[in-house]
Amino acid sequence: IELFGDVLETERQNAAPGPVLADTLESLGRAHAEDDEPGAALGSWDEAADLYEAAEQPSEAARLRWRMGNLFRQYEDFDEAVDQFDQAMSLLETAGWEAQPDARPLGTTVLEARALAKAPQGDPSALEDVDHAREIAVADEEAWRAADLLDTRARVLATLDRGEEAVAQFLQAADAYRAAGDWPAGASAELMASNTLAARLERPADARAILREALKTLSQSPQEQAAAEASGLLEALNAALAELA
């Protein structure tokens, strides 16, 4: 923090260009965040975003607003998080992000983050954000990303207390992950479906059936089973099954 602060002071004294100051402020903000100083981090990123915007670099400014929104969401300040994500999307729209291949991943990431901030407030438009992001991932033939956004959509549905729909969506996400070659992610989605069935819908028998199927599917591929074991997923699946016994 001290190092970045010294660099920033020198740059200010030398009237460095806005983007140069913004880059240092971003690094300083990251250091503050890692040191559990969210207020200082947000202050640095806010100034950096304004400097990028003044320098007509809207995508860079949007990236900083997205970073700020994530920090607000981490501390469950969802109103402020949504506000930052709204600003990020406005900046990206100014840059015509949907017509720019390099900007599309950031755009879908901001839409996904905004959905996850809207859902705890009971805002059903969170689903529109996820669907918009997924349409782009599908159009760009990003199979794994499209599957991941199905998983996010399921999480949003669960947060909106739409448990039945969430379970169905988690299972669709599981199939999509496997189609994209990620079996452990598929099993993780099935674990979420099981948790939703057991905790929200009080259907332990159905939850057990999903867990058993997830374990059976993983066992068909020693390589994927090893990956699940290394990540701790296999242990989590077995622990959840034991808890429901």
How do the strands and helices of this protein lay out in sequence?
Blueprint: H1 2-13, H2 18-34, H3 38-54, H4 58-74, H5 78-94, H6 104-118, H7 125-139, H8 143-159, H9 163-179, H10 183-199, H11 204-219, H12 222-231, H13 233-244
Helix pairs in contact: 1-2, 2-3, 3-4, 4-5, 4-6, 5-6, 6-7, 7-8, 8-9, 9-10, 10-11, 10-13, 11-13
Structural class: mainly alpha
| Shape, per Cα inertia axes | elongated
The proportion of residues in beta strands is: under 5%
Please report the number of helical segments.
13
Poorly predicted runs: none
Give the distance, in angstroms, between the N- and C-terminal Cα atoms. Answer: 51 Å
What is the strand tally? 0
Helicity level: over 70%
Mean pLDDT: 95
The biggest beta sheet reads: none
Order of helices and strands: HHHHHHHHHHHHH
Measured on Cα atoms, how large is the radius of gyration?
21 Å
Polypeptide structure, described:
There is one protein chain. It is built from 13 helices and no strands. With 245 residues, it is mainly α. α5 runs antiparallel to α6 and α7 (125-139) runs antiparallel to α8. It is elongated. 42% of the residues are buried.
